Amino acid sequence: MSHASEVVTVMVVDDHPLWTDAVERDLQAAGFSVVATAADGDEAIRRALATRPDVVLMDLQLPTVSGVEATRAIREALPDTKILVLSASGEQQDVLDAVKAGALGYLLKSARAEELYEAVRRTAAGQASFTPGLAGLLLGEYRRLATEPAKPERPELTERELEVLRLIAKGMTAKQVATRLVLSHRTVQNHVQNAMGKLQVHNRAELVRYAIETGLDTESS
Amino acid sequence: MRLPAAVAEQVVAAVAAALDNVREHVGEQAPAWLLIEDLGFEVIVTVRDDGPGIAAGRLERALRDGRLGVAQSIRGRVTQLGGTVEIVSAPGQGTEVELRVPRE
């Protein structure tokens, strides 16, 4: 690893400069290294490529390129860079789309500073951060997919994943879920991550299919 | 999610009763979670609090003795809709009131 010092590098993306400045200051004070900030999606993609941060703190409502599209572009170009979505409430579809585009975690802007630091550390380590709201969104998406005409590659939850998502959507912490189901904390994390991962794979396959069907794949070359 | 008005009214009243129960037993400012799931053939509505929870034996005894007035009123409404009510609680796990109401 090149990061001998283990300092987590972060890029903060938000179109409100006062917010960006405050988050940058707080993260620096907490021992993170903020290597870039960006005020729109296009800038976010360019600066991520230039600075290759461990974690991108991504707002979703952005000018030019949306946070969802920026998430997809950064994940494709930089597989080692993890995206943590930090959004206002009420952006449900955007949050779901961001997770499908490869975001590893989601936190509300109303979260406390300590929760944010913890989520950034977890994200840098490749672990998902989730809220009851996100678990509910994932549940709803799997159920919506289940009502569509059956396709061989349609993602499905295992019984265990379903059980874990339901309990988290009911407001239980991962620790409480682990106690209830007699699982390790790590296993609970893995179940949520698998539920997110399957949707990402599915989404990628759908985009490829769409590109082929519409001839987008042959356009540029 | 669409439900016939008469069904929706009963579900809303049952949820309100469950939330009243949280307010009374866990606190005015206590957080509560509401999860609504549409399975097509039935709707599941869960109200969960993060209170101290109730040990299994105590919960059953209270239900049997008719001491959980709120549970009875919730059960009455949901049973009339052909549904079921399950209360899950354990110390440190909070309390879940899960209503299952069939579609149609």
Automatic annotation (TrEMBL), chain A:
Domain of life (superkingdom): Bacteria
Residue ranges of domain Response regulatory in the record: 9-124
Entry keyword Protein biosynthesis: no
Claim: Lipid metabolism is one of the keywords in the record: no
Modified residue annotations for 4-aspartylphosphate: 59
Domain called HTH luxR-type: residue spans: 150-215
Cross-referenced InterPro entries: CheY-like_superfamily, NreC/VraR/RcsB-like_REC, Sig_transdc_resp-reg_receiver, Tscrpt_reg_LuxR_C, WalR-like
Pfam families: GerE (PF00196), Response_reg (PF00072)
Keywords: DNA-binding, Phosphoprotein
PANTHER family, alphabetized: TWO-COMPONENT RESPONSE REGULATOR
Record-given protein name: Response regulator transcription factor
Source organism of this protein record: Fodinicola feengrottensis
